[in-house]
Structures are given as C-alpha cells and as structure tokens.
Design brief:
By secondary structure, the protein is α+β, with helices and mostly antiparallel strands. It folds into two domains: 17-262 and 546-715, no CATH class; 294-516, Trefoil (Acidic Fibroblast Growth Factor, subunit A) (Trefoil), CATH 2.80.10. 44% of the residues lie in helices and 11% in strands. It has 21 helices and 15 strands.
C-alpha cells in the first residue's frame, strides 16, 4: 500500500530561459534607483492628491476616469504605511520622510517591467519565431518613454500592462480552441481576458479601445465557428454563452466592484462632494450629513425648507431672497416690477429658508398629523425671514429678457396682483401620487397662472450686477420642454415648522433639526450618479506648456520635462527612443503597402506567399496594427488637452509590429542565402542603433548622471524638443 514511497517524488518543470531573463532585465531597468528623485515628478502632483484622500478616506471625484488605477496607487501607499499627510501642490517639491516613495512607485514599475515578457509571449502566441519575439521584448525593454512612465506614480504603465495581458490571454485562449475547448486552461485564459479588459478600462477609459478590438476579434472568430459544420448547434450556443459570460458579464460586474470598493473606502465628506446631489452628500460622514441627519423625510404643508438647484455646476446654489428690490430701471433702460429680489445664492444662509404653505390656509406651521405634499399639489412658497411669497409675472427678467422675472411679492396697491401659486411636479416620481421627499425627490415648480417653470438661469454663467450682489439670476422659463437640470430643485435642509409668530420662527430657522430618519442611498444609485459625474464633469481645458496634438506624436516632435534638479543639470524627460519610433512608423507603412499589394494580387488569384503565411500576416497585423490604430486614431476626435503619454499604448502595439514585418521580409522576400545574410547584418546594425539611442538618452530617462550644458545641447536632436538649460 505504501509502495509508492520506495521511489523518490520527482517534479519536472520546463523553464523558458528567455522569459526568465527578459523578466529580470525588465525588473532591473524599471526598479533601479526607483526612489530617485525623492521629489514630486510631473503628474505625481495630480495622482498624489488622490492617494492622500484614500489614506484619509475622504470622498473625491476624478473626471479623468474610473477609480481602479487610483486604488492601485493608493495600495502602494497603504503597503508603505503612508498616512496621507503631504501637500501635493508643486512639481519638484521634496518628499517628506513620511512619504514612502519606493512603495508608491512600486506597482507602476512592476507593471512596466512585466510588459517586457508579455511582449515576448504575445508574439510567440501569434506563431512568430522566438527570435522575433525576443526582438519585440528587447525593443520594449529599451524604450525610453516606457521606462520613464513606469518609474513614477503614474497610470500609463499599469494600463499598458493590463492591455497586453488581455491580448495575451485572448491569444492563448484562441490557440487552445481547436484541441482543448472547455478545458480548465481554456476557461482560465478566457476568464483572464475578461478580467484584464475590465481592469484596463478601470484604470483609464483608454482601455476601452483595446477591449473593443478584442470583442471585435472574438466576434469575427465566432462568426467563422458558425460556418464549421463539425460543431453542433448546442456546442455553438455553449461557445457563445461562454464568451458572453467571460467577455461581457464578468467585466461589467468587475467594473461595478471597482466603484463599490471605491465608495466603501471613501465614506467621509470632502471638498469634491459639493458637485454631487444632496442625497449623495448626505450619505457621507460629516459635511452635509451633519446638517441633514435626522430631518423629516416627507415635506408637508408648514415645512421649512431650503431648495438646492440640482444642476450644481459651475457651482451649487440655493433659492434665496433678501429685502432688496429690483431697480426700477435697468442699465439698458428696461423697467422692472421693483419687487423683492429672488436669486440663487452659492452659500448657505438663513435667507435660503422657505416655508411651504397651503393656499387655502393661513397657518405657517405643520399640522398634527402632518399633511404631506404630493406630486401635482398646489403650494405657495413663503420666504422665511421676510414672509413674502414667491411670485412671477409677465415682466422680463433682468438678464434674460425672454424669460419672466421671479420675485417675492410686495403689494404696492397698483394694478399688479400677486401670482404666487406653484404646482409641484416630482420629476423622479414612481407614481402620480408620490409624496415630496427631503433630499430624494427632484421637483419642478410650475407657475399656475403662466405655466412658467422656476429656473436658475444664472448657472449658465451670468450673474446679477452690483445691485443684485453678484448673485445668480432666477427666472420663470416660459418654454419648458423637457427637464433641464437648471429647472429642477431638491429639498436639502428641512424641519417641521412649529412657530406661528415671526420672531419665534426666525429663531427656529437658525436651529438644527432633531428628528431622526435615515436617507442612505443604495450602491447602484450612488454608482449611477458618480459614473455620470465622471463622464460629464469636465474641467476647463487650458493650454499647457507641454500639451501637443496627435500629429506631433508620430514623429515625436514633442517631449515633456518631468523633473529638473533644483541646483544641477539633472532632469527627466518623457522622450521615446528615436530609432524605435522611426522604425515603428516604417514598419506600419511597409505592412500597409504589402497588405494592399497582397490583396490586389490575391484578387487576381496570384498568391505570392503560402496560405499559412498569409493567415499569420493578417492575424499578427490585425492585433499589432489594429491595436495601434484603435489606441491612436480616436484622439483626433477628442476635444481635450493631449500629452505625449497618451500615445504610449498605441506605440507599444506599433513596436510589436516591427518584428512581424522583419520576420516576414526575411522569410518571404529575402530568397537567397546572400540576401538573408545581408538582411541579418542590417538588423544587427539597426538594433545596435536602438541600443545606442537608449544609452544616449538614459541620463534624461533616469535623471542621472547630471549633464553639463554642452551635453544637454547635444541631446536636443529636434528644435521642437524643450530640453531645460540652466543658466550658469
């Protein structure tokens, strides 16, 4: 029974020495001197702020993309014991001793290092020779721009890692298709494809480009499977469902999980939550939650409320009034009603309080039991401090003459009667009998007499003149098709009024609420709002010293100065390997021309290369050339400030195309031994030039050693490059 113990247990393993050596060289090139410089480098000033907020659990919104990449950077800070206490306000600022620089830069560096063996594996799975795969990996290894970008607390190297991992996983899955369908390894690589795609999108939305490429490739491959008569309908259905699960359902679920973790970590109120809705703000610890906690849920007749405009940009503001009146005549000669001003005020103030009144009753307190206001009910809004009624009439607004003036009515005993009845319309109602709820309900106020809708028109950018204290204009919008957010309001602060006397009511308006009702949002509600803000909230794009156009990238007519030593000439630049980039452009051009030539010839039934070589040429070009195209061409359609680092995912694919073209030229166009020998010698000479350029620009890739003024001038190979010259 124990006879198996008589023989030793032997474990054998195949080790790809090329892969191990490439991984080690990748780690050395990216991890060497990782703590240098111990100062803020370029966009570390941007991402570092978010890492600090993660450490302090403070909520933020970054309109540049999803939170997964930020969480990975924060993970490095967490593992290094970072407490979040550092002021990220200046590029070049020295890091204090509490900042774990090596730990913060570790994950991007590891991702960049692993891109080297991934490049090797991808070309092997594309059925190119190991020599070609080795060449591709060495080109990635010696690419100065990829080294620079991966050695700092930035996201591009992490994005490229997940992109390449997704491509490799899909190729491995596809190569297992014929002989090992539905095996364990088949499922592993298929699922890893979906996971890597989701991670790429979760780091930056640029990952969507490669995700779409792989979905299109998977769709094309499945289309070919449909024509395979050896596969039954059941088998085809299983293949379809497996791909749908792994490439669509799981990535979507994983993408949601990034936000779930993000929101679970960031539970404290901060400076960014002001752009969110009142309901979202109230779900965070501190901030608005301290004010709104325990408010009554249902708005009733007699409720004292503040009304926040839902649009919230360019700034949040609340419906407001004060004792000052509109001037009798405006600067342009138009007249006004001289009624009490109503504005939208971007700060919390006692004059933001209003009382919801029943038009048929005189009392301004909540009855017992409270009588809730529902969708479609008619109300009057009484200004809490001045007790004047919200009013609009057929008088032109001060800044928007095509809209109606909104005021608080003053009876001047002239032929201008009060028109102060408003119909409450709950925009996000589930039924026509919904109760108006604090924070949760988004409502429009429709004027009964004129059908005008209460609107914060000042959010479009115009503010009132000095007589209106530069506050934002509020109007009655006559043409109210649809539900523009500037016409929608929600109750933010709320209490049940108890004091009928005005003086007692003023004291009550300054007092906090006491009742205790929770208004926590569901995760999906918070995710939907946050996702919408990320997609729609855009900072004003300003011209940057190092911004560039997509056309500048191909010829590398631009660079970015990442860091400059405060005293010496040491500096770090984002600059690509000129020899590699020029070769990548040439390879793309050769691939395009040869493909068109082959297609024309094949149309004439002239086959210059064997069918298996043609399939290899098309599949390898589809992945490498297609990866370059989908990651580059969309930038011509984007209206945003662009930088050279946006091109790095595209140029990575273009670099992988170089060995594809070189191997094809060697195998099919160099037919004689002499030509093959000459071609091999040219490749050696060319690769030597790549290594020479890498070594030449290493001082501005790693930031050391410091170069003299003469040496820096010698590095300025193009007039458009901004190499920093310190005056001596």
């Amino acid at each position: 029974m124990l006879g198996f113990l008589k023989e030793p247990v032997v474990v054998t393993a195949k080790i790809n020495v090329n892969l191990v050596a490439l991984t080690m060289m990748g780690l050395i090139s990216r991890l060497w001197g990782l703590c240098y410089p111990r100062a803020v480098v370029f966009d570390e000033v941007y991402y570092g702020q978010f890492v600090s907020l993660y450490m302090k659990r403070i909520f933020f919104v970054d309109d540049s993309g999803p939170p997964f990449g930020h969480m990975l950077l924060a993970l490095g800070g967490y593992l290094g014991g970072f407490d979040g206490n550092f002021l990220w306000n200046r590029i070049g600022a020295e890091y204090s001793m509490n900042v774990p620089v090596w730990s913060l830069r570790l994950l991007p560096a590891l991702a960049g290092a692993l891109c080297v063996p991934l490049a090797y594996q991808i070309l092997v799975e594309l059925h190119l020779s190991h020599c070609a795969a080795l060449g591709a990996a060495l080109l990635i290894l010696l690419e100065n721009s990829l080294i620079t970008q991966s050695r700092f607390m930035l996201l591009e190297s992490i994005l490229i890692f997940f992109i390449l991992l997704a491509v490799l996983s899909y190729l491995k899955f596809y190569n297992l298709q014929k002989h090992s369908a539905f095996s364990g390894s088949w499922w592993f690589w298929l699922l890893l494809t979906g996971v890597a795609c989701s991670c790429a999108v979760g780091v930056k939305y640029m990952g969507l480009f490669t995700y779409m490429l792989l979905l299109a490739t998977a769709g094309l491959h499945f289309w070919h499977m449909i024509g395979d008569q050896n596969l039954s309908n059941v088998s085809l259905l299983c293949h379809f469902l497996a791909r749908g699960l792994a490439l669509i359902i799981i990535p979507m679920g994983l993408y949601l999980s990034f936000f779930y973790v993000h929101l679970a970590l960031l539970y404290r109120s901060g400076p960014h939550d002001q752009i969110m809705t009142s309901a979202f703000q109230a779900s965070l610890e501190g901030g608005l939650a301290r004010i709104t906690q325990g408010q009554p849920l249902e708005v009733a007749y007699g409720s004292q409320i503040t009304l926040r405009n839902v649009l919230g940009k360019p700034m949040q503001c609340w419906l407001h009034s004060h004792t000052n009146t509109y001037p009798i005549r405006y600067e342009n000669g138009r007249g006004s009603s001289h009624q009490q001003q109503v504005t939208c005020y971007p700060f919390k103030d006692v004059n933001n309080w209003w009382i919801v009144k029943d038009p048929g009753m005189q009392q301004l307190v909540v009855s017992n039991p409270p009588w809730p206001v529902r969708h479609g009910h008619i109300v009057q809004l009484v200004h809490g401090i001045t007790t004047r009624y919200l009013n609009t009439h057929d008088v032109a607004a001060p800044l928007s003459p095509h809209s109606q003036e909104v005021s608080c009515y003053i009876d001047y005993n002239i032929s201008m009667p009060a028109q102060n009845l408003w119909r409450v319309e709950i925009v996000n109602r589930e039924s026509d009998t919904d109760v108006w709820k604090t924070i949760l309900s988004e409502v429009r106020f429709v004027h009964v007499n004129t059908s005008a809708v209460l609107k914060a028109s000042g959010l479009s950018g115009a503010s009132l003149p000095e007589w209106g204290y530069r506050q934002l204009e509020v109007v009655g919008e006559k043409l109210s098709k649809g539900y523009h957010q500037s016409m929608v309001w929600n109750v933010e602060e709320h209490r049940y009024g108890k004091s009928q006397e005005q003086k007692e009511r003023e004291v009550e308006l300054h007092s906090p609420t006491q009742m205790d009702i929770s208004k926590n949002l569901s995760f999906m509600a918070k995710f939907t709002e946050l996702q919408w803000k990320i997609l729609t909230l855009k900072n004003e794009d300003t011209e940057h010293k190092y911004s560039s156009s997509a056309l500048d990238w191909i010829t590398m007519d631009t660079n970015i100065a990442y860091w400059l030593h405060p005293t010496s000439g040491a500096q770090i630049h984002l600059l690509g390997n000129v020899a590699t980039w020029a070769s990548a452009n040439a390879a793309a051009l050769v691939y395009l021309c040869l493909s068109l030539w082959y297609l024309l010839r094949r149309r004439r039934e002239i086959y210059d290369i064997p069918e298996d070589a043609w399939q290899l040429w098309m599949s390898a070009g589809g992945i490498c050339g297609g990866g370059w195209a989908v990651n580059y061409l969309p930038f011509f359609l984007m209206e945003k400030t662009l930088f050279l680092y946006h091109y790095l995912p595209a140029v990575t694919f273009q670099i992988l195309l170089i060995p594809v073209v070189l191997q094809h030229l060697s195998d099919h166009l160099c037919r004689s031994v002499l030509l093959k020998s000459m071609f091999s010698a040219l490749i050696v000479a060319w690769f030597s030039s790549v290594f020479f350029v890498y070594c030449t620009f290493s001082p501005v890739t790693y930031g050391q050693p410091a170069l003299s003024l003469t040496e820096l001038k010698a590095l300025r190979w193009k007039d458009t490059w901004n190499i920093l010259m310190r005056k001596q």
